[in-house]
Write a structure and sequence with these properties.
By secondary structure, this protein is α/β, with parallel strands linked by helices. It has one domain: L-arginine/glycine Amidinotransferase, Chain A (5-stranded Propeller), CATH 3.75.10.10. The protein has nine helices and 21 strands. The strands form six sheets. A four-stranded mixed β-sheet has the order 1-5-6-7, sandwiched between helices. The chain has a four-stranded mixed β-sheet with strand order 4-3-2-21, sandwiched between helices. The chain starts with about 45 loop residues before the first strand and ends with a strand.
């Protein structure tokens, strides 16, 4: 059986830019000394907010404008707002011009819930990917704990890097910057551990060497000494009480983009986008899910995406560039660390995007390969109560993918979770994200 390509029914809005796209924008934050009592402007006893554990108490969403005639994501946000826990507070960042329509959406979806709309300057361009611009920690040194949005040294994606400061201005949370490289989607936080994609360990070491911003760092030390010092800085900054694991794969003979013929037309086949340098996808939340501890063993269950399992379910022939071996390496690494690893279908399919492609010459469009990920989900483990919000892909011309949707549902239900099936996430997945990427947990 052939894979049915996904064909977007309308052009994508600017706010749904591909998640791994970077633009060269940076800014510096300076300060001036004052003859006042010393005040710590950073979390002194940081505890990182979990990706799965505890009731969802406060969530941040970003809602950029959608121009007429472009593919809308309004229905997805409406469904998400309807199905989030009623007690959860929601903060939504949007343009001034979208505020009235968004308020109408909120009144219909969550009429009794605590919801705050924060507006940006009307000129600011930003994306839907609220997960990435920061990690969230609580400073346990204060009573009640102060919530901090910890930002990386740089975050070059449109205007996204300015939003944490705007939210800090409009709410009780604080924002501060640290000399490490990370994005929220490459960080998953369990009950007593943190998983981070290996790329951000390497990037952080390189950034520290370049900036010289960390005191007592082994600048002249070995690579292993630098990695240990950087891991210690991650723990000190994020949460010293958790164990940190950096997930990695070994790239070998990865195919590159190429020009192919389809029905007599020349297309650019994009297969290199979205990969990490030392991980199969640039963010681990695209293929790793946290599912809590199983009884009676107490081992922690992680679900790892598996393209081959999707091929088997759907009757597809394998493709050479699905990086199956690298997903298997991540699964083996977690198993060796003592996790209970279970594999989930990770369909890998092309989207057909007809139109000019910058730098590709005389082609009629792009064939963009992407993962229809349901690993990129929302999880709430609250005592005996367990819930999960899953993206789905078995819609329209891609109805065959309902088989994979139902398999994800079965796996989570077998683990004791109540499953909320969300709508069509193809437009997000083809841009390298899904539901975990469009929200940020601010409190649990």
């Amino acid at each position: 059986m052939k894979r049915t390509p996904y064909v977007p029914p309308a052009p994508l809005p600017a706010g749904l830019v591909r998640r791994d796209v970077k633009v060269d924008e940076q800014f510096d934050v300076g300060g001036a000394a004052a003859l006042r009592p010393a005040v710590a402007a950073f979390p002194q006893q940081p505890r990182i907010v979990s990706s799965a554990h505890g009731p969802i108490r406060h969530v941040m969403l970003w809602y950029p404008p959608v121009a007429e005639g472009l593919l809308s994501y309004r229905s997805i946000y409406e469904q998400l707002l309807r199905t989030l826990p009623a007690a959860a507070r929601v903060t939504i960042v949007t343009h001034p011009g979208e505020a009235d329509d968004l308020a109408s959406l909120v009144r219909g979806a969550r009429p009794e819930a605590d919801t705050q709309i924060v507006t940006t300057p009307d000129y600011l361009a930003f994306t839907v990917w609220a997960e990435d611009a920061c990690v969230v920690v609580e400073d346990m040194a204060s009573t009640p704990p102060t919530t901090y949005l910890l930002e990386p040294a740089t975050f070059p994606r449109a205007g996204d890097m300015f939003l944490p400061e705007l939210v800090a201005q409009a709410t009780e949370v604080q924002a501060t910057q640290v000399p490490l490289s990370f994005q929220g989607g490459n960080v998953l936080i369990g009950d007593d551990f943190v998983l981070i994609g290996r790329d951000y360990l390497d990037e952080s070491v390189a950034g520290i060497l370049d900036l010289g911003a960390v005191d007592d760092f082994p600048y002249d030390g070995t690579a292993a000494e630098r990695e240990r010092a950087t891991t210690a800085l991650f723990r000190r900054t994020f949460d010293p009480d958790r164990v940190f694991h950096f997930l990695e794969s070994t790239p070998r003979d990865r195919p590159r983009d190429r020009i192919v013929r389809r029905n007599g037309e020349r297309w650019l086949e994009s297969i290199a986008g979205g990969r990490g340098a030392r991980q199969p996808i640039f963010h681990i939340d695209m293929f790793v899910s946290l599912a809590g501890r199983e009884e009676p063993s107490g081992r922690y269950v992680v679900l790892i995406g598996d393209p081959a399992r999707a091929d088997e379910l759907l009757g597809w022939e394998p493709v050479a560039h699905d990086l199956q071996a690298e997903f298997d390496q991540i699964a083996a690494q977690l198993a060796a660390l003592g996790f209970e690893v279970r594999r989930t279908p990770l369909p890998y399919l092309p989207a057909l995007l007809r139109g000019p492609v910058a730098g590709a010459g005389d082609v009629v469009g792009e064939i963009r390969w992407y993962h229809a990920t349901s690993n990129n989900c929302l999880v709430q483990i609250d005592g005996a109560g367990k819930e999960v919000w899953l993206p789905t892909y078995g819609h329209g011309d891609n109805a065959e993918l309902e088989v994979a949707d139902r398999e994800h549902q079965r796996i989570w239900e077998d683990l004791g979770f109540t499953v909320h099936l969300l709508g069509n996430f193809h437009p997000f997945a083809m841009q390298m994200g899904a539901v975990h990427c469009i929200k940020k947990y601010l409190a649990r």
